[in-house]
Design a protein that fits this description.
Blueprint: E1 3-7, E2 18-21, H1 32-35, E3 39-40, H2 48-54, H3 61-74, H4 76-91, E4 94-98, H5 107-115
Parallel strand pairs: 1-4, 2-3, 2-4
């Protein structure tokens, strides 16, 4: 299983593989053509309430991870999407695209951990 993360705003060359946007809202200033996506899975992004509460505060990250995982476990749609992403990662590299400025404390890290079974 090969799963990597890439910030959608990074100017570096886009990583190849199954490119999936995992944010609830479309990233500002990025055209759909430039994004070069295979899929956009809004349903696995944190809820608006959780995202606003967290606000990329490193001190809240552990609690955010716990709450985010709970959100993902509660919904059948989220579970189905997670399974779909796992299948995508078995045949080809899965690139989780996100818009957050913070590369250390964001939901894509948690999502990657879940998909890899950590």
């Amino acid at each position: 299983m090969s799963i990597v993360m890439q910030r959608i705003y990074d100017k570096e060359s886009p990583l190849g593989g199954n490119r999936v946007l995992v944010d609830r809202v479309w990233p500002r200033g990025i055209s759909k053509a430039d994004a070069n996506l295979d899929d956009w899975v809004k349903g696995v992004a944190p809820s608006t309430e959780l995202r606003k509460w967290f606000n990329h505060d490193p001190d809240k990250f552990e609690k955010f991870k716990q709450r985010y995982k709970e959100e993902l476990e509660q919904g059948n749609e989220q579970q189905e999407t997670l399974e779909k992403l796992k299948k995508m990662a078995t045949n080809e590299r899965l690139v989780l695209l996100y818009g957050a400025k913070d590369k250390t404390y964001n939901h894509a890290i948690v999502l990657k951990e879940l998909l890899e079974g950590e």
